[in-house]
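RECORD TYPE: inverse folding
INPUT: structure tokens
STRUCTURE:
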């Protein structure tokens, strides 16, 4: 049986999120490899990305966007959160903040101090695949279930990849 990260599983259980756990070869956990190997449309794969505001103190945001889009940090996200200087957290910083493995970072189990912003395009899908907190599992979930995460909000924060 495929196991999610224990903290991720705990949050799913506490929130009563209806989901399906999918096994993933850890070597294929990165989005492009996962989608092509498991025949998942890229517009149904959703990536969790930690963004950091460069003020003092530093502020962090969890952002969920489809693999076919990218966060518009300099315009849309900046205006939404009221911080001019934003950047993407480095892999080590993401791992330290989330406690989750790169290639498996998910919206479930992020610290309460990190607000979650879901791009509105995610909500247009019947289902999306998000990380399982490790590189050996993924979670299939209806987008509406993501709104069970306390403080989660939906906004237009992404633009199509070119």
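DESIGNED SEQUENCE:
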């Amino acid at each position: 049986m495929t196991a999610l990260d224990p903290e991720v599983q705990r949050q799913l259980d506490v929130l009563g999120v209806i989901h399906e756990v999918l096994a993933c070869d850890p070597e294929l956990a990165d989005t492009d490899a996962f989608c092509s190997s498991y025949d998942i449309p890229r517009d149904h794969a959703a990536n969790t990305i930690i963004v950091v505001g460069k003020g003092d103190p530093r502020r962090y945001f969890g952002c969920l966007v489809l693999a076919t889009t990218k966060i518009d940090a300099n315009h849309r996200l900046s205006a939404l959160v009221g911080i001019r200087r934003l950047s993407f957290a480095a892999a080590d910083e993401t791992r330290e903040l989330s406690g989750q493995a790169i290639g498996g970072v998910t919206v479930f189990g992020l610290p309460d101090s990190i607000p979650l912003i879901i791009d509105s395009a995610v909500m247009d899908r019947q289902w999306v695949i998000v990380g399982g907190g490790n590189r050996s599992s993924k979670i299939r979930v209806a987008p509406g279930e993501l709104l069970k995460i306390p403080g989660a909000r939906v906004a237009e924060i992404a633009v199509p990849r070119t």
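NOTES: The two ends are 38 Å apart (CA to CA).
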